[in-house]
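Lab meeting, item 3. Inverse folding demo.
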């Protein structure tokens, strides 16, 4: 959580510096309430960001009941530059991003900083993306950048960047027929492999726990799981991000006549909830229930028993994204590539042969 809090503050500070450099806030910042809403952060977090910018001489010291003044307002002849800036376009606000997304963004940002390139995080809500090209155009105009990284963006957004020839690469969610370079982690492939492993071990009642989102990857994962588990009893259980969602889902699942002897979980947050519920209700892993996690993060290393899981070469993805965007900034023509990272299975000690449901 400390890393996430630091990244949120850093992103907010970067946004304020960019708006000042662009002349959007020439003399003073908006009120704290307005600024907190625009940056999608709390007031206490905002004050820490403002204190940091004050120490860096970007802002003047706070005065009672006055808006924060810019220390060195841009002159009328100031022309902001976007030549060495990359924009990361995300369908979710920074504060809601998963630990995996935050880790990847931090790594890409580090690679770009080594090349003296700055990266800003921009939020494009999915409810707007497919509806209006004008909205996408407005986002691009308000956030000047020499290149863009599109994270899991809808087809309409990717097509807009390709059609307008706005320099961009894609992180997740693309088909080989599209023109933008892309690198992706296809969790459905890990899901297929996990399902086959459990079937080979003789499990006849398998459940897939996944976040209840409408992303293409999630739909594909559920579809593949259902097709592979046709000969046995199976369930796809969508769960929300609320604390009570997983306990409610599992209570219904284990009250069935044939409760699952194996569970596949899509992400670490859901896995922690599943493990906690099973242990609290006396189900032992893997004696009573086998468990496989499709994505991992360092927190999972502290789970007992060690969870079987899949890992992807995130460093390779981050380096490739960084290199592509640097080449775009340098006006180089990219050779078209669509890279799909392979998943590596780490056995752990949470899987064993199928048992009779308890």
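The presenter then showed the designed sequence:
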């Amino acid at each position: 959580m400390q890393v996430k809090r630091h990244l949120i503050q850093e992103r907010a500070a970067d946004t304020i510096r960019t708006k000042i450099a662009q002349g959007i806030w020439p003399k003073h910042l908006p009120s704290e309430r307005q600024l907190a809403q625009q940056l999608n952060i709390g007031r206490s977090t905002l004050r820490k960001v403002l204190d940091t910018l004050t120490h860096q001489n970007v802002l003047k010291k706070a005065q009672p009941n006055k808006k924060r003044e810019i220390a060195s307002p841009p002159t009328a002849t100031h022309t902001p530059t976007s030549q060495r800036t990359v924009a990361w376009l995300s369908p979710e606000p920074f504060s809601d991003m998963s630990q995996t997304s935050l880790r990847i963004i931090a790594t890409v940002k580090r690679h770009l900083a080594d090349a003296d390139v700055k990266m800003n995080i921009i939020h494009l809500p999915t409810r707007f993306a497919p509806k209006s090209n004008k909205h996408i155009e407005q986002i691009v105009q308000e956030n000047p950048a020499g290149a863009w990284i599109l994270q899991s963006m809808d087809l309409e957004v990717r097509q807009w960047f390709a059609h307008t020839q706005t320099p961009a690469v894609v992180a997740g969610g693309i088909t080989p027929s599209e023109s933008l370079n892309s690198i992706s982690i296809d969790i459905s492939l890990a899901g297929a492999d996990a399902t086959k492993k459990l079937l080979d071990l003789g499990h006849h009642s398998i459940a897939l726990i996944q976040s209840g989102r409408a992303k293409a990857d999630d739909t594909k994962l559920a579809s593949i799981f259902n097709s592979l588990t046709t000969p046995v009893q199976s369930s796809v259980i969508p769960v929300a991000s609320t604390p009570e969602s997983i306990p409610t889902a599992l209570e219904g699942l284990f009250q069935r006549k044939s409760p699952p002897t194996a569970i596949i979980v899509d992400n670490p947050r859901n896995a922690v909830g599943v493990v906690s519920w099973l242990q609290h209700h006396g189900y032992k892993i893997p004696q009573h229930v086998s468990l496989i996690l499709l994505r991992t993060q360092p927190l999972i290393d502290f789970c007992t028993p060690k969870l079987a899981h899949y890992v992807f070469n995130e460093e390779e993805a981050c380096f490739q994204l960084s290199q592509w965007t640097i080449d775009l900034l340098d006006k180089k023509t990219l050779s078209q590539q669509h890279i799909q990272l392979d998943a590596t299975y780490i056995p752990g000690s949470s899987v064993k042969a199928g048992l009779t449901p308890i």
